[in-house]
Amino acid sequence: MREMDRLRRSGRYASALALIRQLAETYPRQVRILSELGQTLGIWGGEPAEALIWYERVLELAPGHNTTRLHRALSLARLGRHAEAVADFDALVEKGYRKALVIHMKRAESLEALGRDEEAERDWTLAVAEDPGNPWLLQQRASVRARLGRLNDAVKDLSDALATQEGEDVDPELLWQRGVLRTRLGDADGARADFESGLTSFREGDPPRLLDALRAGLAESMRR
């Protein structure tokens, strides 16, 4: 197993896959080997559909193998089978699985895909509690709160996210998002300041569409 992991981490995926397949053939009821085969396919190989076959086999042999259940949930989500993924995430939460941050993040994404935004907002809140001040998590919660019509709460999330950044680390996308929300709230001066700051913070490598959106937002705020 160590050799297989070394091969995976060194980028020798084909060799790692051949080795773990050989081990699975030799030990067809060893749940750790079967789970590692699934992870090799799903994580390193980008083959979630084939990985599911092995995760299913592990859970038939050992229904309580929570690490495999987590990886099955992640593969189901990647395949767009979000309702099934949520069911697995729910089971892991009920069992108190240790990777709470990952579970809440990924379940929130699947809940959003299912249009269950109120439940998604609760999961993003739980994720923020696990990693307070994480700007990406705050941004995700802001997005879902905005869809729920909780614009002031969304603006606060984006402000909290921006408070963690300074200088070249300021994310212009956060400023654009906050500017859009402030426009919706009727705060033209605040929106204009955000769009101007976003243009100042725009960095080489940021998407051109963001630059266009910042310019359009600023032009709109100037007309108000």
TrEMBL record:
Domain of life: Bacteria
The entry's keywords: Repeat, TPR repeat
InterPro entries on file: TPR-like_helical_dom_sf (IPR011990), TPR_rpt (IPR019734), Ycf3 (IPR050498)
A Pfam family the protein falls into: TPR_16
Recorded coiled-coil stretches: none
Signal peptide from the UniProt entry: none
Protein name: Tetratricopeptide repeat protein
Organism: Pyxidicoccus parkwayensis
